[in-house]
Amino acid sequence: MLKEEIYDRVQKALDTILKSDAKLTKASLAKELGWSATKFSELLGGRMKPGLDLISNLVSKRKVSPDWILTGDGGMFEGQKSGVPLIPLEAVAGNGTFAYDDLPIEDYYNVTEFRSADFLIRVSGDSMTPKYKSGDIVACRAVVERKFWQWHVIYVIATRNQGILIKRVEPGQEPDSITCVSENPAYRPFQVPLEEIDKIALVMGAIVLE
Asked: Does the structure show a pLDDT above 90 at 204?
């Protein structure tokens, strides 16, 4: 019988694959890996356990590292360094810039507290001070399902027109919008329509510069 740690790593690999490709659906990935859509949903929900057939297909078709699956050592994918990737983008907390998933990876970092993070990104600008200063590195966990927001929590938000924003999120003035709030009182809150948002990620914490 496979160990629980292996089950957890398979789940994380599946989550990472789904998050990394906006065009990939759960149904299409299930078909690719030789599972029915129903059983695959049960697997993603933790109600079924992966078998050796699924792990073999992850290795052969999605280049997931067998060493990583079995031991947790090395990178998740073949040829990938271990650790959480640092995106070489200064996330403009005020005006935004390009989408984070379109950029190459600068390096990988092993930080125990951020082991479940999907990526790291630098902050630029002063709109989130004193919480985060320019140059601080925030750890982020990508969110696939955007129907539910955690109010009063800080997110990294990839928007179509304003680029990447790091903001505390509050309910919007309209049903199909959110309010983005800066920590710096010099910056006024503003509305962002949900249709303008491409991807979101929860900020888990930061490596803070002195």
From this structure: yes
40/30 Cα distance (integer angstroms): 6
The pTM (predicted TM-score) of the whole model is 0.64
CATH of the domain at 26: 1.10.260.40
Enclosing H/E stretch for 121: strand 119-124
Can you read off the two tokens belonging to residue 149?
A: 């927001």
Inter-CA distances, 75 with 16, 116, 119, 174, Å: 12, 13, 13, 43
Q: Which of 140, 110, 109, 134 is nearest to 122 (CA)?
A: 134
Handedness of CA 199, 205, 207, 210 (dihedral sign): positive
Look-up of token digits 């600068």: 106
Does residue 8 belong to any structural domain of this protein?
A: yes
Backbone phi and psi for residue 187, each to the nearest 5 degrees, phi listed first: -105, 125
Domain termination site, one of 71, 102, 124:
71
Q: Is the dihedral of CA 31, 82, 79, 200 positive or negative?
A: positive
For the chain, the average pLDDT equals 86
